[in-house]
Every structure is written in C-alpha cells, then in structure tokens.
Amino acid sequence: MNTKAFGIDLGTTHSVLAHIDYSGRPAVVRNTVDEEITPSTVYFEGPLEVTVGASAKNSAVLEPRNYSELVKRHMGSPGVHYPHHGHDYSPMEISALVLRYLAECGRRATGVVVEDVVITVPAHFGITEREATRAAGEMAGLTVRDVIVEPVAAALHYGFGKADTGVRHVLVCDLGGGTCDTTVIRFEGDLVQVVCTDGDGDLGGADWDARVRDFLVDEFVHLHPRTDPTADDVFMNDVVQRAEALKKELSSAQARHTELRFKGEVARVELTRTKLEDLTAHLVDRVVDLTRRTVEEAGRKGVREFDDVLLVGGMTKSPAIGAALQDRLGLRPRLHEPHLAVAKGAAIFAAQREVQITEAARSAGITAAKTNQTAAVVTRSIGVKALDPSDPMIEIDPHKARFVVQHLLIAGETLPAKSDTYPFGIVFAKARMAEIEVWEQNPAEDSMNLSANTMVGRGFLRDMPPKPKGGTILIWFAMSETGELSVHASDPDSSAQVQFELRIDGLTAPDVTRSRDWIARHRLRD
Length: 526
What we know:
By secondary structure, this protein is α+β, with helices and mostly antiparallel strands. Helix content is 30%, strand content 30%. The chain folds into three domains: 5-203 and 284-376, 2-Layer Sandwich (Nucleotidyltransferase, domain 5); 205-279, Actin, Chain A, domain 4 (Alpha-Beta Complex); 382-505, Substrate Binding Domain Of DNAk, Chain A, domain 1, CATH 2.60.34.10. The strands form seven sheets. Strands 1, 2, 3, 4, 10 and 11 form a six-stranded mixed β-sheet that branches. It has a six-stranded mixed β-sheet with strand order 18-17-12-13-14-19, sandwiched between helices. A hairpin with a 2-residue loop joins strand 5 and strand 6. The radius of gyration is 25 Å and the shape is globular.
C-alpha cells in the first residue's frame, strides 16, 4: 500500500524523492529517466518551458545562459535572481521547479498524487534559509508538513528497524554538493537528539569540481598559449561537466584522461587521484577542521566517544575524506548510503508524522507508540534589536544610542525551545506602538553587535495605552522542533499583545501565492 507522505532531499547539486513502500520500508522513487538521484538543475527551453535534471545539464552545454544550478547556496538570500526569458527567478522559484518535477516523478512511479512532504535542509541553515525552503515547497504546490535537518534524517534511516540498544552517540559528516555539516546525535530509546552541530554553506562537491575545472583550463592554455577559451560559455560549461565526471571516476580509479576541444585545438589531459588530492587539500582541511570543532563541542557536552561515524552526501565517496578523518582525528568513518540516506530518513519522518499510519508502516514498526521523537537544536542565536543599556547616550539622546541584539534563544538549545520572558524598556515617552525586529546571529560569529547578526523579520505591538519613558513590554520566543519561530509580545499594563510566525522579511503570503501560480504555468518537458 502506498503512502501519501513523501520525503525530499532537496540538495545543492542533486535531489532525491523517497517514501515508505508497500513492504513498509523506506524506498527511493526513481525519476522519469529511471535514476535514483536527480540533478538540481533547470534548463529554460523557452518562456514557461523547462527541463529538470540530467536533461537540463545536457542542454546547458549548448546554451548555458538559460541554465540554473547551485541555487540552494543562495536560498533565502535577498536580491539573488536568475534571469530567463524575461523573468527574474528567485532561488525559491528555481527550487520549486525541481520540486514539481520530483512530485511528478512520484505520481508516475507510485500512482499517488504527491501532496504532503517533508523537505530536508542542512543543519547549519538558519531561519531565513529554512523558511525559504518551506516557501519553495509551497510554490511547487506542495503541502510542506515539516522541514527536517539532513543529519537527523540520515540518523533516522541509520536507526530504522534497529533494536533498542541503550544510549548511542553517532557522528554524522554530511558533505554534499554544496554544503557540509557535522553533527553529533544521541539515540536513547525512541529519542533522536542533536547534541551539537556545525556547518559550512560554501563547502561541497561543487568546490572540488571548480578546482578540477581550473586545472583542466590551465592545462589547455598551457598546451595552446595563443588561445583563450575562458570567455566561451559553451566550452566552459563542457569543462565543468567533464570536471565533475573526472572527480567521480577518481573515487575508484587512480587516473583518467579527457579531451578538450576549442576552435580546432585539442588537448588530451590526464588527471590522477594524487593530483586531485593535491588540488583539493585545502578543501579537505576545511572538512577536518569543521569536524574537529564539532567533536570538541561534543566533548564539552560530555560526549567523548562515538558508537558510529557516518559519512553521508555524495562527496564523502571520495577516499580522501574518510582517510583524513581517520588519520587526523582518529575516527573510523563508514559510508552510509551517501546519496540516499537523507531522503529515506525524511520519508521515515514523514510517515511518522502521518495522522493515519498505513498498515505497511505498522508492519515495519512505525506506529504511534513507536514513533521516534526527534530533537534538533537552535542553530544560531536569535534575539531582538534593542538599545544598548550600557550606552550613556540613552539618557542624553536615545536617537544616537547604540543598538545591539539581545539574544533570547541561544545556539545549541534543544528544540522545541521557549525563551524566558524578557522585559524591553520604552525610551520614548507616550509610545503607543513598538516595532519588534528579530535578528539572527551570523554563522561562526558570537556577538551582540548588529554587524554580527542579520535581521530576519519584524512585527508590531499596537494599540498600547501611552507608555511612559521607562515602561516595559514583554517579549518571548518559541521555536518548534523543526525550527519554526513564533514571536510573542505583550504590554503588562493593558491587554495589547501580538504573536507572529516569522517569515522571510518581505515575502508575504500573497507573494508565495503569486509565485505558486507562476510556477504552475510552466510545462515540465521530459
């Protein structure tokens, strides 16, 4: 019996759709060309005419200007657009086209209309990126039941069907096409809990591809110094695809050759695994450093040994990754379905969230009594913009006083989380309204300074009686287990109060609806 709940690993370079199949096991849904993974790429053949996946990559060789890829790296970034045939597509809209294609693959393969989904995101994603991912699903015409972090999804798949063996700690290193996360997860009975996590949104297989691309171009120019092919989009796109293919082949081979052609000139270039490792040593260093930070943070939280070290994400198939983690950190990593574990875990999570559990899922032990409880953490500290109480200018001229971010939820807190109620002072007499700006700490920064934080949304507490200078309003935050933030504010001297679910600043429900209608007009070509 098919289930209506699907899990989607929406990746930077590749995406995967999965569900619980008739036997009660998580299974990947193959796409229209009978492949398990789909490149997260879109080619615009014309206005409202697109192809997605491998066919899009092949078409890009001929006309790269109408091709979009790696959009996940800009998810939630304001001002980033991809112009195609007179329309500026946002990263969310490009992602929505990929999601629409996956949903169509699911309908064709299972006979079920794909409606309810769980979509995965990197563990280091903040509120803006997560809400942008949720919005992309809505633009695709899907109902996004939850957004779950990728290492937790991989851990759910790892623990699926295993007997309760007490407390276990697992380190997950997730190195995909565009992002890298390292996360320590505790299994205790039915509880799957994140101990700590760290991540880099600009580190992934695409960076290995770029180093190989540069090497191939340099070799061509060295052999033909009077020729400069770098301004030719068709040549460069071809080199990018050859670079990716060489990188993958060198995960199992020791050397490979490829031929580059431009304006009658030919260069036969050899790339060895040793050379590849030399070219990308600095990238491996970043993976090791990221993992080391996570291991050290886990140690500070009392976790000093790991029962398993899992490698997920396509880039972990490179032997250099596992070898570096073993040689330099003393870990013993093993591959855990690198391309598929995250999507399968999302499917398990989606089935567990179903109001009605299917008989197939029951046969596999997914029941209301046995549903895993997943507990992630606050990824980045979140707070409210406020005047610095230590700045003497507050009393002299509040307009010139310094602003800081008073963090209410602190990075590392277990989800779901609720902050203490915090009093914020009124500095302007007779105020009848208070603007509440919500700010999130930037990755790898730990400071109250505005420069170390980014505004992610705002709301207004209205209809207060005139407040005297020195009066207060009360604010508290609540974050769900999947990272949705709700902001609550009230006036202790009246009945005035406000609550708002944080959405991307400037992206309203009508905006999402307009984009959904626009995306629905596109024809997906096989």
